[in-house]
Amino acid sequence: MFIDIRYLRPWATLVINEAESSSLVGPVTQEDVKAAFFYIEEDRSPRSDGYSVGFYKAAWLIIGDEITRAVLNFFLHGRLLKQVNVTLLALILKVQLSATVANFRHISYCNVLYKVITKIMVQRL
User: Fold this and answer.
1) pTM for this predicted structure
2) What mean pLDDT is predicted for residues 21-33?
3) Better-predicted residue by pLDDT, 92 or 31
4) Contacts with 16 (C-beta within 8 Å, 6 or more apart), sequence order
5) For residue 88, what are the β-bridge partners?
6) Fewer Cβ within 10 Å of end Cβ, the chain: N or C?
7) Alpha helices, DSSP H, located in the chain
8) How confident is the model at residue 98 (pLDDT cuts 50, 70, 90)?
């Protein structure tokens, strides 16, 4: 179901000021990318490309410029490489036997770049 935002405007109030608004849409810097990247918790599970966040952090001196360029390109042009645009879903059974989907827990394995991009967006909120 889609709702036309114009119908909601009479009930919506502005809750952020001009300075807050500009911080939400301001340019993303190389420092923003690196800070968001190193803020991500190192987990043991690999991402959709098979590598963990810990691997990327350990190889930052080698691959950091490439990652930064890809993330900055996303924020400038709104596009990601097709190779990055992958998410694997796994369903883990919560109970011994089940006939319904409700008894499964889903896990999404997103590419590390997705995590960095969403972390930057969340930090600006």
Assistant:
1) 0.68
2) 84
3) 31
4) 24
5) 109
6) N
7) 18-25, 30-39, 53-58, 60-77, 112-124
8) confident
Q: Which residue has the tokens 């405007």?
A: 9
Question: Going by C-beta distance under 8 Å and a sequence separation of 6 or more, which residues neighbour residue 47?
Answer: 53, 109, 110, 111, 112, 115
- Give the number of other Cβ atoms within 10 Å of residue 70's Cβ: 18
Which of 24-28, 45-49, 56-60 ranks highest by mean pLDDT? Answer: 56-60
Instruction: Choose among 2, 18, 111, 59: nearest CA to 119.
Output: 111
3-state DSSP call for residue 89? Answer: strand
* DSSP for residue 28: P
Block residue for tokens 């939400």: 24
Three-class SS state of 69: helix
> Would you state the pLDDT for residue 83?
76
Q: Which 8-state DSSP code applies to residue 93?
A: E
CA distance 97 to 95: 6
Q: Is the pLDDT of residue 46 over 90?
A: no
